[in-house]
Amino acid sequence: MNGFAKRAELIREKIKKTVLEMLKTWEPRKIRIADIAAEARVSQVTIYNYFGSKESLLREAFKDYMEKSFADFEAFIATGPTMKEIVQYSLFYDKEAIHAYSPDFFREFLVDDREMYEYMERIYRDRAMPLVVRFIEEGKKRGEISSKLSTPTLVMYFNMFKDQSKTILDMAQQSGDPEAFVEEIIRLFYYGVCGEDR
Known about the structure:
0% strand; 10 helices
């Protein structure tokens, strides 16, 4: 990569990082290119030249966020955690994400934007699901997941939660305490209605 290409890539990364920071306090629909340009200290023309449109920029920034999140999760999984540690990690991640970004942020990208929805479906199908199946099989071997439950049934259970993501995001926002709501949902997911680790 020559000097010009390196500078261009640094500018692109700076703009995407700026957008992700802005999304912590701004609703995606209300952000304008002029606002992004001012925050990133670049011209609006630069943003249009690199990304073409606000929508494309937001999608690229969100994809970067998701790729980093998934890479972090894969690195965590490589350490060989227990199922309980995986749930705790997920809980911590979800609480951090909800603290940093509003449910509107996730709803707009994961539910309302068809292109991003399809992108997330590919990530889930091609990368996340193989990990889920592996978690299940390893969890059964360690006795952390009931051997009476088949892997296809457990995958269906995971998919039920995923398919209700819009409802969960709406309810988290309406609850008045999104972090506590997410903690309860994950506890319900892992422990069921008995609500305790046995």
